[in-house]
Amino acid sequence: MQERLQKLIAQAGIASRRAAEQLIKAGEVTVNGEIITELGTKADAETDHIKVGGKLINSKIAARETVYVLLNKPKGYLSSAADPEGRKLVTDLVPPKLGKLHPVGRLDYNTEGLIILTNDGKYTNLVASSKTVPKVYDVKVKGLPNANAINKLRRGVILEDGFRTAPAEIKELKHTESNGWYEVTLLEGHNQQIRKMFDSVGHSVVKLKRISIGHVKDNRIAVGAYRLLDEDEVK
Predict the structure, then answer these.
(1) Do 211 and 197 form a contact (C-beta atoms < 8 A)?
(2) Is 108 a catalytic site residue?
(3) Which of 9, 98, 204, 208 could be bridged to 20 by S-S, CB 3.0 to 4.6 A?
(4) pLDDT averaged over the chain?
(5) Which residue out of 108, 138, 161, 232 is catalytically annotated?
(6) Rounded CA separation 68/91 (Å)
């Protein structure tokens, strides 16, 4: 994955990002033998040969410690590493000692549950775009949808924005007199998909919580708390 050179130099422990920018301006950085002086230039540490002061730094970049965190996201937090509006971020819930992390995929602002944070860009792209990693949600909806409505969602529906959902696995859980409860499994991640799906059959979502990502689950993590993923979970 391509990243800015100053970021890669900082990851290698050669210099801070600001100091790395000065090295680039001074002509001390080359990519595949070409001197780079323009800030913002990107390179891929897995395929490009990056040198600082004539020394190859790819091995140092590869040796940086990767971190994988499983967070139980509360409502009212944005699944992003930055926000110009100053809203609370999921990255605010982990300590600075873990380094700069970013979320793998997204959970809506008012959705809670499990989300992975990492500094591994390749892993992020693989998991976030995968159509084979199921995400499972507990869903509480207003009212009690009939069997036809639920079967329609299972087969796939066209949402208001024109997106057609893939077939989804939906299990009925214990209902109350006024609310339906379901376990929904998706292999895709369209923006606010579950909310829009139930809106399409006239039953708005009251509560939404992600309970697993692939085989990774943990109902013991308190809301707002986290733990590190173990090696098997990452694989």
Answers:
(1) no
(2) yes
(3) 9
(4) 93
(5) 108
(6) 12
Q: What is the pLDDT of residues 49-79, one digit of tens each?
A: 999 999 999 988 877 778 999 999 999 999 9
Which pLDDT band, with edges at 50, 70 and 90, does 126 fall under? confident
Please indicate whether the domains covering 68-130+216-234 and 135-213 agree at the CATH topology level: yes
Distance CA 14, CA 24 (A): 12
Q: What percent of the chain has pLDDT over 70?
A: 100
Query: How many angstroms separate the CA atoms of 160 and 14, rounded?
Result: 50
Specify the CATH number for 135-213; select among 3.40.50.300, 3.50.50.60, 3.10.25.10, 3.30.70.1560.
3.30.70.1560
Query: Residue range 133-151: average pLDDT?
Result: 97
- Distance from chain centroid for Cα 83: 15
Q: Where are the domains of the chain?
A: 2-62, 68-130+216-234, 135-213
Nearest to 110 by CA among 73, 76, 72, 79: 76
Q: Residue 39 corresponds to which amino acid?
A: L
